[in-house]
UniProtKB/TrEMBL annotation:
Gene3D superfamilies per UniProt: NAD(P)-binding Rossmann-like Domain
One GO term describing the cellular component: mitochondrial outer membrane
SUPFAM superfamilies linked to this entry: Activating enzymes of the ubiquitin-like proteins
GO biological process, any: cyclic threonylcarbamoyladenosine biosynthetic process
Organism: Nadsonia fulvescens var. elongata DSM 6958
GO terms assigned for molecular function: tRNA threonylcarbamoyladenosine dehydratase; ubiquitin-like modifier activating enzyme activity
Coiled coil: none
InterPro entries: ThiF/MoeB/HesA, Ubiquitin-activating_enz
Protein name: Uncharacterized protein
């Protein structure tokens, strides 16, 4: 990884497939954004002292890791390391059972289909990258459960109340919120690109709260935006750099475009 990064060689690396069984949880993203994956975490720890914190694409799974004690094998239905039989310990040094020196005696179980799915995702990414880098999609982490989408909506409703709209019932359902957050904004803040604590917010003052004036930003960014743009009346061009404004306008244009196909 370090060699490819230093020499500007494009790289996509497969992370841990052990104890994973949900094919819908396989994702591609920058290594700095991967989650629920201990191999990614270990790689980040080793790369950080070398001055590398991002810039490496990885395939991983957002599926929750085993809720188990890896030494005891206990857990709630998830695969985990099985304990060595007592008679193996009585034979002597269990490290001698490994096929190589310092090689783990036991390995985590891997469902045979999962590495194949990881490989297909990598192959698809590489083919698109070779054909035309512009064809590579802006991958969605898609880690959100259904309950997640209520938080951005409540954040927007709270904002509308603070701005004097009173008790508002927006005419949106769960699919509308999922559409905005994942399909349009890729689960990321339009300002910073962060995926943490995201909320929905009105973008331009005076444009109402229709879907074509709603963007995704973090909770902290929402409060700042609300104060400067929606209350004090500053234009978005005064507050944000041009690249942010262009991205927001592009996303809002996408909302109108996608509406024809929903």
């Amino acid at each position: 990884m370090e060699f490819c990064y230093r020499n500007e060689i494009k790289l996509i690396s497969s992370m841990g497939a052990a104890c994973k069984g949900d094919p819908s949880s396989v994702r591609i993203c920058d290594i700095s954004q991967s989650l629920e994956d201990s191999l990614s975490r270990t790689c980040r720890r080793k790369l950080k002292p070398k001055g590398i914190s991002n810039g490496i694409q990885v395939v991983f799974s957002t599926e929750k890791p085993p809720n188990a004690d890896s030494n005891s094998g206990s857990g709630s239905g998830k695969a985990s390391l099985m304990p060595l039989a007592e008679e193996e310990f009585l034979k002597g040094n269990v490290d001698e059972l490994g096929v190589l020196n310092r090689f783990r005696v036991r390995i985590l179980p891997v469902l045979g289909t999962m590495p194949g799915l990881f490989g297909l995702n990598m192959a698809n990414h590489v083919v698109l990258e070779i054909a035309n880098p512009k064809l590579v999609p802006e991958y969605v982490l898609g880690r959100f459960g259904l309950k997640f989408y209520d938080t951005p909506l409540q954040g927007l409703l709270g904002q509308l109340q603070r701005l004097g709209y009173g008790e508002v019932r927006v005419p949106w359902n769960l699919e509308d919120i999922m559409f905005l957050v994942e399909e349009v904004f890729r689960g990321k803040s339009v300002i910073s690109g962060s995926t943490n604590r995201i909320n929905l917010s009105m973008w331009a003052k005076g444009a109402g709260y229709d879907r074509d004036n709603i963007v995704v930003m973090t909770k902290e960014e929402q409060r700042k935006h609300e104060d400067l743009v929606l209350k004090k009346g500053m234009s978005v061009e005064e507050v944000y750099r041009k690249s942010v404004c262009d991205l927001a306008e592009s996303r809002l244009h996408d909302v109108k475009w996608y509406e024809h196909y929903r």
